Amino acid sequence: MNDFRNQDPAFLRGMTQRRLGRRDAFRLAGLSAAGLALAACGVQGKRVAKPTSSAEAQSAVQQYWSGKVKNGHVDFANWPLYMDPKQPELKQFTGQTGISVTYSEVIQENASWFAKIQPLLAAGQSINYDLMVVTNGIQFSQLVELGYLVALDHSKLPNFAANAGPRYKSEAFDPGNVYSIPWTSGMTGIAYNPKYIDTPPTSYAAMWDPKYKGKVGMMADSQEIGNFGMFLLGIDPEKSTPADWEKAAAKLKEQRDAGIVRKYYDQSYVDPLSKGDIWMCQAWSGDIFQKNVSDGTDLKFVIPDEGATIWTDNMMIPKTAANPVDAIMLMDFFYDPKVAASLAEYINYVTPVPAAQAIIKADADAASGDDKKTLEEVAASPLVFPSEADYAKLRSYRNFKNTDEQKQYENIFQAITTA
Amino acid sequence: MRTLRARLTPYALIFPGGLWLAIFFVVPTLVMLSLSLQSGNVVDGFAFTWNWHSYVDGVTTYHDQIIRSLLYGLAATVIQILIGFPVAYWIAFKGGNNKSVYLFLVLLPFLVSFVLRTISWQFLLSDNGILLGPLRDAGLLPQDFRVLATPYAVIGGLSYNFLPFMILPMYVALERIDPRLLEAAQDLYASRFHTFLRVVLPLSLPGVFAGVLMTFVPASSDYVNSSVLGGTNTTMIGNVIQNQFLVNQDYPVASALSFTLMALLLIGIFAYARALGTEDVLEVAAR
Fold it and tell me: Do the record's keywords include Thylakoid (chain A) (predicted)?
């Protein structure tokens, strides 16, 4: 590099000038190309028309599934901490059916998962998974609206028909389970660390209590945080109006500006809660159980008196799946009560199969020592088998009529979390 | 033949880098520019409509975050100069035969992933962690004192993460200073302070400029430090852009904000280059 200094300055100048001239030519070429590109590249969106009659829907199902055969393999995309790492259920499935399963814990967040698969599905390309698990909510609605999901052939889902709880057959976000059947459900409630909090919180008002200033964690997710604001005000989020959202946002802003909120978290709230950085936070039911089991912590999870959010993570088949028959067989397999029981024992989220409870009880009777105690707790846990009284207090996310409404909602609550 | 080769050599040398930039910088930039002028949503699709509103909406909604990002970036840059200059000076003039060892030590944290380093701050600065816990128990800190989830933690994280980018160019500039110049200054009865002020500092300025360029720009657009170490009201524009892209799928606003940030940073850099004197900048470019 230093040699440049000893070069004839005239040579240097010449090079610079020539390069500039060249750059100008590029610039011109680039600009005209850019003009073309600017005009040409819109991002494709393909809203599909909803079937207008049940006959039409039925024929769409038949059209898709006719001629599809079992291929002997399925690629399954799921979230972390949603199955025993030894995958006993999948091994059993392979033993019974001869279908091999590649299980990948690739979904961390609905929004980023959607962002990842959307361009591929829009182009009609494979996403390399035949089965995936997505939460009811904004991204699920978008997948349906864009026609990215396969309409399920319910004649291939006998276990689901026989064993799914009635509640899980009539979910508002997918009436008639046209595109999805539940993997598992969970609640969003309040978690707290009893080391710092003497009186267990029973109401959302505890999260607005100034004595916990700087020690409360809220979620950054606009649906989760919006729901907390609405529960505090006694509004049912499912039936809320834009005016309700504004009211809830005002409450949440008050909570933030009073310095009560330390931070708006994603899934990373569990560690600060166990370390004492926050004493109380919004949390998902199974996370707290799994943290206590894996790290020996003593965190608590409560469903406040005002009620809480229940959400459902659903299994579905993307329209470009290579092995849809194998995928739907695996979906149905998880509705075998024995399989559902074994899964619930490990992950401690709400199972959509009520018959699993008796099996877990029987497993508990057969077990001994610590295992017995844990299994008995799981069988009796309202977080795995909510009673009717529990369900009566639980509410779903708001379903948005269209993208404008959704955008309005997100803008209102993101103004709180991304200030 | 020889002259032709001589003429073509510079282009041949620039070709791989130029091609790389064309594919991975120019094309995405054009696509982003196009996106920023489109309107629509992810379900109905986006169409090119010369929609300037994304710029207006983006800036009116997020001007606080834009200003905050520039201020955080500036604060981090100043802190890095204050910390980095003495380090670079010491290694360049007092490092002796172990200069490369010291430089390696400066670079050592880089062998650990960026995100991991930031998360380790969470562990270190946790309210009841190994640092703050004992200090509070000893009564040296108020009960509700905290470092995490404050602007100070974010600025601290930014300063820490980009520090080597500040030290290295300053070291290069300082190392090139001929020691005989310092001797000459002393022969002419300049005090040590004046030697520094009149000889060392001006000669090191191009290094400082390069360092500022390499730290201020990434620090202002960073989103990791704010999301890991920040709390409420510490959101930087990088977080907003990430959120608009990945959570809201509002590609036009996200692209418009990216372009606005790019423009602001370029203006800032050129203003700074002007203030410092363009010759120094060219000199840096030539190195």
Answer: no
Number of separate domains in chain A = 2
CA torsion angle for A247, A203, A208, B134 (degrees, to 10)? -150
What are A363-384's pLDDT values in tens digits?
A: 999 998 888 988 998 999 888 9
| Amino acid type, B199 | V
Confidence of residue A18 (pLDDT cuts 50, 70, 90): very low
The alpha carbons of chain B give a radius of gyration, in whole angstroms, of 23
* Closest by CA position to A159, among listed A382, A357, A356, A388: A356
* C-beta contacts of A55-58 below 8 A and 24+ residues apart: A57/A151, A57/A178
Chain B residues closer than 8 Å to A272 by CB: 122, 126
Alpha-carbon separation of residue B119 from A122, A278, B63, B153, B270 (angstroms): 36, 16, 28, 12, 34
A238 closest CA partner among A253, A223, A249: A223
Residue A127 lies in a domain: yes
Residue A15 pLDDT:
41
Please indicate, yes or no, whether residues A202 and A305 belong to a single structural domain of this protein. Answer: yes
Question: The whole model's pTM is what?
Answer: 0.84
Q: Is the pLDDT of residue A338 over 90?
A: yes
What is B62-286's CATH topology? MetI-like fold (1.10.3720)
Q: Which of B244, B279, B86 is nearest to B171 (CA)?
A: B86
- A275: nearest CB among B40, B126, B231: B126
Distance CA A284, CA A279 (A): 15
- Residue among A277, A402, A406, A410 with most chain B CBs within 10 A, to mutate: A277
Regarding whether A407 and A273 lie in a shared domain, the answer is yes
Residue with tokens 């980095």: B84
